[in-house]
Amino acid sequence: MAFEQDGIIQVEPEELKELLKQEDRPIIIDVRELDEYEEAHIPGLPLIPMQTIPAVAPDLDKDQDYLFVCRSGNRSQNVALYLQNQGFTNVKNYAGGMLAWTGETVSGAEWVVRSPEELKKEK
């Protein structure tokens, strides 16, 4: 069951699995480094490395729902907090990160986002 930490909703592994099945879901973004993402990531998730978030944040839709994923849940929590401080109201963190993920993974650079417009294909 989701819980809150520092004002950010934390999504548990089973909840993420259910979200991935839904058509009307948040945009779920992997914020790890490219090499981590290439090694293994949740299928269909775009990559926007944490250090690039400040550059793309002004072009992201503040009214959109976002859920962030990283290795352990720490970087993604920091991204959610950062965006919340930038005026985003619908940001969540995947608690436990990829270390807690027991679902399917794929390798390779499936979807590395170079511009926020590329996220529109997520919906």
UniProtKB/TrEMBL annotation:
SMART domains reported in the protein's UniProt record: RHOD
Q: Where is the Rhodanese domain?
A: 22-107
| Entries under Pfam families matching the protein | Rhodanese (PF00581)
Q: Which residues cross the membrane?
A: none
| CDD domains for this protein | RHOD
Q: Identify the PANTHER family for this entry.
A: FAD-DEPENDENT OXIDOREDUCTASE (PTHR43031), SULFURTRANSFERASE YTWF-RELATED (PTHR43031:SF17)
State the name under which the record lists this protein: Rhodanese-like domain-containing protein
